[in-house]
TrEMBL record:
GO-annotated molecular function: ABC-type transporter activity; ATP binding; ATP hydrolysis activity
SUPFAM superfamilies recorded: ABC transporter transmembrane region, P-loop containing nucleoside triphosphate hydrolases
GO cellular component annotations of the record: membrane
Domain ABC transmembrane type-1: start-end pairs: 121-396
Membrane topology: Multi-pass membrane protein
A Pfam family recorded for this sequence: ABC_tran
Protein name (record): ABC transmembrane type-1 domain-containing protein
Keyword Zinc-finger attached: no
Transmembrane segments: 145-164, 241-267, 338-361, 373-399
Length: 556
């Protein structure tokens, strides 16, 4: 964290943040504020955001800079949040539980998320003060015998209800956005650290390309984090609809139930749209991963592509991937537009149907009943329009949750034990000084390796997982293992491994790199590793051109 200097007080005793001293201006780490006032703010200051007044006063006098921002509080520190997330992840992973990512996020940030939802609950309940007070005020206006003080009291209560609703709704939104930022920061840290420790073999086997990792850290994490800001709305909307139906039933009787019964005709359509949107989202992510992988490959191999003249070919491939992505996005947007139109008109259908049924049943629709019912229908209008999209959003965010969980649950490279001689030891090494005494770079001591088994998520049935695991174990017994290998590679000498195709030369190199899992025995490694894979890189030129690779030729 940046060091924060104290603010020097003016001689008149009042703080003037607009005029830092010359000594402060010379400091590179000078900060206008040395602490975050939100940490010590009371409930009223938090609800009214008055803790921002010192910052706003600076902004009124001059343009704000990064040095004027409040220091980040410990609550929002991404490293602290990631450490807690990682601790809970490791704990739940040992229990071999399902939906581990959702459970980890809930265990890490759930209490703060639900605390913010408490303000949402108060906000939603205070919104129902309005229909009651409107009904009372209508009676007050129609009956001259009611004292004037009653009307004044109704007005005050109505105003207070609006204020409570406004303050609590605003603070709820602020709290859930803080949770969203913490979730995003923790997941980005987790994915980044996982990408550094996952083996290339797992990447190639499970399709975890660099493009996939980029999409996980951007789009998928954003989708999960943003759900924190509107996920509670689905519960809130359901609660508002239930309370509104109860109050409307007391006011309009069975006619309101006839109006809400029209929703039944749209439930199958919404279910179909949600499933269709989830399928389209799956295909979209596959196309995005493919395009991002191609872009990463082009950027890394740009020099080779220019030598071979393959720029136009790769440009065409990337363009085709992008066009396929745009087509998929259009399908999703058309589906969303249809749902917005459909569910935007449903509240009006409910209102018209309810009032029409009420009149047809022989009741008189007076002003008091009309205004109170309209007030309740106004409250329920937003939940009726939002709830279907929330249900669709849940199905879409679950796609991102499964993708991130699948990546994080992959097996990592094994970490060796480092000794005082900077040597790394993996597994059971009986004599750790052996590699140093014999001046070796690599030493394998009865080591057995095998390729890791992918850990499948819960969408595969238990029987399918068992059969898949047995098949892979059988394959590994036949071709995927290096058994009881003993090998010493000396330092400072050229060592060449020869053998027929399929004898395990590449697997041995992968084992030394750590891509294969050590099952028994041990091996030691000293120094850093430079690895050149079997990917073709020879240029279409002379032998000299391939040797100097664009550098100036020096005969000496």
């Amino acid at each position: 964290m940046t060091n924060h200097t104290d603010i020097e007080e003016p001689t008149n005793g009042s703080k003037d943040y607009n005029k830092p001293s010359l000594k402060q201006k010379r400091r590179k780490n000078y900060r206008t504020f040395n602490h975050n006032p939100e940490e010590n703010a009371n409930l009223v200051q938090r609800l009214t955001y008055s803790f921002l007044h010192p910052l706003m006063s600076v902004g009124v006098k001059r343009p704000l800079t990064s040095n004027d921002m409040y220091p980040i509080s410990k609550r929002d520190d991404s490293y602290i949040n990631y450490t807690l997330f990682s601790k809970n992840w490791d704990s739940l992973k040992k229990e071999n539980t399902n939906r581990i990512l959702l459970k980890t996020l809930h265990q890490t940030f759930g209490w703060e998320f639900h605390l913010g939802n408490l303000y949402k609950l108060i906000s939603d309940l205070s919104e129902f003060i309005s229909p009651f007070m409107i009904s009372k005020m209508m009676l007050f206006l129609q009956d001259e015998t009611i004292p004037f003080s009653y009307g004044l009291l109704y007005s005050v209560i109505l105003t207070l209800g609006y204020l409570v609703h406004s303050f609590c709704a605003s603070y709820w939104e602020y709290k859930v956005k803080i949770v969203s930022i913490k979730v995003k920061g923790s997941l980005v840290n987790a994915i980044y650290k996982k990408s550094l420790s996952i083996s290339n073999a797992v990447r190639e086997r499970d399709g975890q390309s660099k493009g996939n990792t980029v999409n996980l850290m951007s789009s998928d994490v954003d989708s999960i984090g943003d759900f924190c800001t509107y996920g509670q709305t689905s519960v809130s909307a359901t609660l508002q609809i239930i309370i509104s139906i109860i109050l409307l039933y007391r006011l309009l009787g069975w006619s309101c139930l006839v109006g809400f019964a029209t929703l039944i005709f749209f439930i199958p359509l919404n279910y179909w749209a949600s499933m269709k949107a989830s399928d389209l989202e799956d295909v979209l992510w596959e196309i995005k991963d493919e395009r991002a992988s191609k872009m990463s490959e082009v950027i890394q191999s740009i020099r080779v592509l220019k030598f071979y003249g393959w720029i136009n070919i790769m440009t065409e491939r990337i363009t085709n991937s992008r066009l396929a992505e745009v087509v998929q996005i259009k399908k999703i947007q058309l589906l969303d537009s249809f749902l917005y139109f459909l569910w935007g008109t449903i509240p009006d259908v409910v209102v018209v149907t309810s009032f029409s049924t009420y009149i047809l049943m022989g009741y008189v629709l007076d002003v008091n009943t009309l205004m109170t019912a309209l007030s309740l229908f106004f409250i329920v209008r937003a939940p009726l329009g939002i709830l279907p999209h929330m249900l669709t959003g849940v199905s879409l965010v679950m796609v991102s949750v499964k993708r991130v969980e699948k990546f994080l649950i992959n097996e990592e490279l094994q970490n060796g034990d480092q000794d005082s001689n900077q040597s790394l030891h993996f597994g059971f090494v009986e004599n750790k000084d052996y590699i140093n005494k014999n001046n070796l770079a690599v030493s394998l001591q009865s080591a057995s390796f095998q390729w890791t088994i992918p850990q499948n998520l819960e969408e595969d049935g238990e029987q399918e997982q068992t059969e898949l695991k047995e098949e892979k174990e059988e394959d590994q017994r036949l071709t995927g293992q290096l058994l009881n290998q003993t090998l010493n590679i000396p330092k400072g000498k050229l060592s060449i491994i020869i053998g027929p195709v399929g004898s395990g030369k590449s697997s041995l190199l992968s084992a030394i790199l750590g891509d294969m899992k050590l099952k028994s025995g041990g091996f030691s490694r000293k120094g850093r590793i430079g690895y050149v894979s079997q990917l073709p890189w020879i240029l279409n030129g002379t032998v000299r051109d391939n040797i100097i690779f664009g550098a100036e030729f020096d005969e000496k």
